[in-house]
Design goal:
The complex is a heterodimer. Chain A is an all-alpha fold. Chain A is 77% helix and 0% strand. Chain A is elongated and about 50 Å long. The radius of gyration of chain B is 18 Å and the shape is globular. Chain B has one domain: Bromodomain-like, CATH 1.20.1550. In chain B, strands 1-2 form a two-stranded antiparallel ribbon. Classes of the chains: A mainly alpha, B mainly alpha. At the A-B interface, helix 1 and helix 2 of A face helix 2, helix 3, helix 4 and helix 7 of B.
Chain lengths: 52, 183
């Protein structure tokens, strides 16, 4: 469900960019990016097998 | 660089994004490899990468459109780099099938890095931004590229819903939640 929502947000951004003005497309793009980063941080919990 | 050439290059970028996402669907459907969460996030980043080119096709070249592509490329490269790191230990077989010796997430990292580089190179041509050009006249080549990306985005939304159902996506999906009948 979470990924479907993000795909739909970006689909809306693409559609608005194609059919309407750029400002609403930028707004939807920003929402999509924030949701993607939030979802990444929510799921990226495994420890990496590396050391620096 | 003329507005017409910029439109052609951006349409080519959209075809590349569409073909990458179709290749991912080939692995998902033909080889029955369900995409993991990081794989889905990389697909999202590829779609985000398409917003800038579509804006350029519709409204003409502007630096902000390439800025969007760079932001999406950085996000996608970061996610792909994390997945590479998860499987970097010696002996780790990696996730999914390999294409030409590299896994999908490694190729994704290369593609995102190439997108960032291409955007930076196109930004060097100042002449295209000096006057606000009229929106370029689009042919079938450019329009088909946009519809390809829109269609693949729709497929991804449906596929993610089938895979994850109406709850949070499971960490290790092994079947399509909406197509699974236990017992």
């Amino acid at each position: 469900m979470d990924f479907s929502v993000i795909f739909l947000v970006f689909a809306a951004s693409l559609w608005v960019a194609w059919r309407r003005s750029s400002r609403p497309a930028l707004f939807l793009f920003a929402i999509g990016m924030v949701l993607t980063v939030a979802l990444y941080l929510h799921h990226a919990t495994e420890t990496l097998p590396v050391s620096f | 660089m003329s507005s017409r050439l910029a439109a052609k290059l951006n349409a080519l970028a959209l075809y590349a994004i569409g073909l990458i996402l179709l290749a991912a669907f080939y692995f998902q459907i033909a080889l029955q490899e369900l995409p993991c969460l990081l794989c889905l996030l990389q697909r999202v980043a590829f779609i985000a990468l398409a917003v800038g080119p579509i804006l350029t096709l519709r409204h003409g070249p502007r630096p902000s459109h390439y800025g969007l592509a760079i932001l999406a490329g950085l996000l996608g490269a970061g996610i792909a780099a994390r997945q590479i790191m998860l499987h970097i230990a010696p002996g780790d077989p990696g996730f999914g099938s390999a294409i030409l010796g590299y896994h999908f997430y490694t190729w994704a990292f290369v593609c995102f890095a190439a997108a960032i580089l291409a955007s930076a190179v196109v930004l060097l041509f100042d002449a295209q931004f000096e006057v606000t050009p009229p929106a370029p006249t689009l042919g079938l080549f450019e329009v088909a590229a946009v519809w390809l990306v829109l269609a693949v985005t729709g497929f991804n939304a449906v596929s993610a819903l089938l895979e994850c159902g109406f709850a949070w996506c499971p960490a290790n999906p092994v079947h399509y939640e909406l197509l699974y009948w236990p017992g």
